[in-house]
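Consortium newsletter contribution from the modelling node. Members have asked for a concrete example of what our holo predictions look like. Here is one, prepared for the heme C complex that several groups have been discussing at recent meetings.
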Amino acid sequence: MNAIFSLPEATTHAVRVDQIFYGLLILSGSTMLLVFALVISFAARYRRGSNAKRGPLPEFFKREFEIGWTSATLFLFGFLFWWASSADIKGIAAPANALEMHVVAKQWMWKTQHSNGAREINALHVPVDQPVRLVMTSQDAIHSFFVPAFRVKQDVLPGQDTSIWFQATRTGVFPLLCAEYCGTNHSAMRGRIVVMRQEDYANWLTRQPEGDDLAHVGAKLFVAQGCSGCHAEHSSVHAPKLTGLYGRTVQLSDGRQVKADDQYIRDSILQPKRDIVAGYEPIMPSFSGLLDDGEIQSLTAYVRSLRSEKAGAATEQQND
Ligand code: HEC
Ligand SMILES: [Cu+2]
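And here is the predicted structure:
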């Protein structure tokens, strides 16, 4: 289908969004034409002084007709709801094989980081035909990560992780904008997304100066910040072991159960008193104000990398 206002459709999601847009445009446009046509023709036909027939409605237009068109429109709008929300729901959970990349927004730039630690500013290189998941946070105000050609827009919040995913379908350079007013130079907070062939991306990545990867930095912080004093395997403090935590369901002391995702790990570090793990004392100190967002992302990446032994062995086999 034609792209809206000749904006390229560069992801699988963009195609779905445009189909819905055109579907709604055609449907609401034709409804509007129909209503206008009826209004005008009735106004002409029943104008004052015309001798059109004005008696009661013919038998045909009674009850059944009313029920018929009401349920037809109900069905139609139910379908629209299902259609649009199913596209939205597809946008929520990234496929399991998605490449993970990190984004930190700050006044007024985008800092991005690849899984091997390579960093970029106001740019992000991604491979084509491969799902990419972005885990994003802000160092200051609320920003919004907006790539029009991808039909992807997600607020980026301080003190919280948000994520989106996309799968680019064509190579090229596409503008990245901040879509949430975030201060004086908001309008200059621009970047570019470079979609490359998969081989080219792999080559490009090996040519980047390899920063320490996030999990690696996190592992060092884990010791430097004293986390390991309580959480290490052989610690004498009664604290939960973090191996295999990520993705698991955690039983909390107040009876609730939560899934250990990025947000949960971040909250555990910044607001440890909020979710107390069942069977433990609330002795973990808050690290709020002691760690910056980059450090929290690194620690989260480290905790995520602590797969349980069995799961770790399984993924290694898959990689062989
Ligand atoms: C004084 C000991 C202590 C220190 C230091 C400490 N923790 Fe904890 N941590 C605990 C205890 C006890 C719990 C369980 C009770 C709770 O949920 O608050 C916990 C819970 C957690 C959880 C949730 C675990 C689960 O099974 O759901 C995470 C994640 C975590 N800590 C990460 C960290 C990180 C990262 C650091 C370092 C920045 C750290 N902790 C420092 C004692 C500590
Ligand atoms: Cu911004």
